[in-house]
Amino acid sequence: MINRGDSSGVLATAKKPKKKNGLFQFVRRRYILYLLLVPMVIYFLVFNYYPMLGLQIAFKDWVIPIGGRPGGQWGSPWATTNGKLDLFKHFKTLFQDKEFFTKFINTLRIAGLRMLCGFPVPIILTILMNELTSSFFKKSVQTISYLPHFISWVIISGVLISMTASKSAFQNFMVVLFGKEIHFFSNSNLFVAMVIISNIWKNAGWGTIIYLAAITNINPELYESAAIDGANRWQKIRHITLPGIGSAITINLILQIGNLVDGGFDQIFNMYNTAVYEKGDILETYLFRIGVTGGRYDIATALGLFNSLIALILTLATNKIAKKLGGEGIW
User: What's the gap between Cα 12 and its chain centre?
Assistant: First the structure.
């Protein structure tokens, strides 16, 4: 007779076949998807990570390679002061320059006002569009509000400068309204106001896209239940719509705070002039003048690295604060 107990014990103690590497099998089954990732990985390596090697210029004394003389990104010597190695030489030069702090304050002023005045506008516009009952009218408003985003700042600046020129129809209207012409491009305070208003007009409609997408994820039954309980439109917005798009608002806020050192080079460069340098000249235009125009690539790189570090610190700090307060961060 066969001892079943013994046979079961033998089977139980039999060695199980070794499984192949789980990660290898996972990749093997999905290798087509990973092949599709290759072009994107190459793109980021070539255009995003390789250029970061150029940050070393901030710690070197830039030399133009002429006539076989070593120079450029790799051939320039490390920064020195009185013959001694001084890697932070160009950062010290920036921080000792009073003009640098003026541009830094101008950048924070413009970026801060842009965020303070412009951040709520897409949220308000999204809520208003969501309350529209006519589908045709809603789509028309969306299309019209999106269009300015696709217009170049070169064109917008040219139109604004021409529109506010002396003896123009706009200035004639200003004379009737205020008794004198209002020149936005020769007064620093008015120039900042023009920058903020034109930026809101250009980007408000485009900023509603992510909020409208977030609203589509809200369960319609919540609105029906609220209506049964007697909630009015404002109460629905306050207790359903705003909490429903809260995560999108948090993410956008974190990104905008991280861009507080970004004054908007395209807009400012096409709109400003020497008459408004007092409050209209920002770090990026200053960087353009000393770097591209002045040929001081070492100082310009140091300034760019400083901007990037500030943006990184602001993003990390805001993300952590948002999560501490119970919200959702970017990661």
Answer: 61
Distance CA(328)–CA(169), nearest Å, equals 49
Residue 168 contacts residue 162 (beta carbons within 8 Å): yes
Residues 6+ positions from 227 with CB-CB distance below 8 Å: 236
Tokens of 186: 């020769």
For helices 188-215 and 153-163, give the axis angle rounded to 10 degrees.
130
Distance between CA atoms of residues 100 and 94, nearest Å: 6
Give all strands (DSSP E) within the chain, no chain letters: 80-81, 84-85
Amino acid at 304: G
- The two tokens of residue 32 are 């087509």
Q: Label each residue of 94-154 as H, E or C.
A: HHCCHHHHHHHHHHHHHHHHHHHHHCHHHHHHHHHHHCCCCHHHHHHHHHHHHHHHHCCHH
Question: Residue 159: which residues within 8 A CB-CB, separation 6 or more?
Answer: none
Residues 6+ apart with CB under 8 A from 157: 267, 270, 271
Tell me the pLDDT tens digit for each residue of 189-204.
999 999 999 999 999 9
Confidence of residue 28 (pLDDT cuts 50, 70, 90): confident
Angle, alpha carbons 264-265-271 (nearest 5°): 95
Q: Please answer whether residues 220 and 137 qualify as being in contact, where contact means their C-beta atoms are separated by less than 8 angstroms.
A: no
Give pLDDT tens digits for 54-101.
999 999 998 888 877 788 888 889 999 888 999 999 999 888 888 889
Residue 90 CB contacts under 8 Å (≥ 6 apart), including other chains: 58, 59, 79, 298, 299, 301, 302
Name every residue whose Cβ is closer than 8 Å to that of residue 119 and which is 6 or more positions away in sequence: 252, 253, 256
d(CA 10, CA 2): 13
| Distance from the Cα of residue 2 to its chain's centroid | 76
Which single residue is written with the structure tokens 């997408």?
213
Token pair listed for 298: 């070492």
CB 195 within 8 A of CB 267: yes
Chain centroid, CA 101 distance in Å: 22
